[in-house]
Design brief:
Radius of gyration: 54 Å
Number of helices: 8
């Protein structure tokens, strides 16, 4: 293996020999090499010490008075729920569910849930309301008109499903009308 340093030494050898030859010539002609005085700087001696850990502080026990703990979030929530349920109960005597929701600024779904959970009753609505009780009553005149149209569709050979679609009624209403008016509408054409 060839060393890079050896090659560098060999490359600088002529310059080194030249300096050595000049120094010998200088000394041979009576020259003197003077050494100057020391600069006075002496480095500090290196000392190795093991460092001691710092002294620990004395243990002082403090007496701390126990503060009352704040209410848990679940306790606060349950108290808020009970307050809201009480408000809903008080308003439910004179107002409907929708009016109570508008009064308190909450959703109707929340009012329905509280009513089911806490057995709260409300004033019944005058016009249908959210459960639309007025619409559930059957209108005989309307059903008679539907029966006439169903008979006409039966004559045209339209299927039950197409008939329900054209009348915009559900299958239950269709079944109720044909059974009430004695129409024999086949299930398949």
């Amino acid at each position: 293996m060839i060393s890079i340093l050896k090659n560098e030494v060999e490359r600088l050898r002529p310059a080194s020999e030249d300096i050595a030859a000049r120094t010998e010539l200088f000394l041979a002609t009576g020259g003197k090499i003077e050494e100057g005085p020391a600069s006075g700087y002496t480095p500090k001696p290196i000392t190795y010490k093991t460092q001691m850990p710092p002294a620990s502080k004395p243990l002082v026990r403090r007496k701390v008075e126990a503060n009352t703990l704040p209410l848990d979030k679940t306790d606060i929530r349950s108290q808020d729920r009970l307050k809201l349920a009480e408000q809903i109960h008080q308003l439910g005597v004179t107002l409907t569910k929708t009016e109570v929701a508008a009064e308190l600024g909450v959703s109707r779904r929340l009012i329905y849930n509280y009513a089911a959970r806490y057995d709260i009753t409300f004033k019944p609505p005058t016009r249908g309301g959210a459960q639309n009780l007025v619409r559930r009553e059957t209108d005989e005149a309307r059903d008679a008109k539907y029966a006439e149209r169903i008979r006409a569709f039966l004559g045209l050979g339209i299927t039950r499903r197409q008939c329900c679609g054209k009348l915009a009624i559900g299958n239950k209403a269709f079944e109720r009308i044909i059974s009430a008016h004695g129409i024999d509408y086949p299930k398949r054409s």
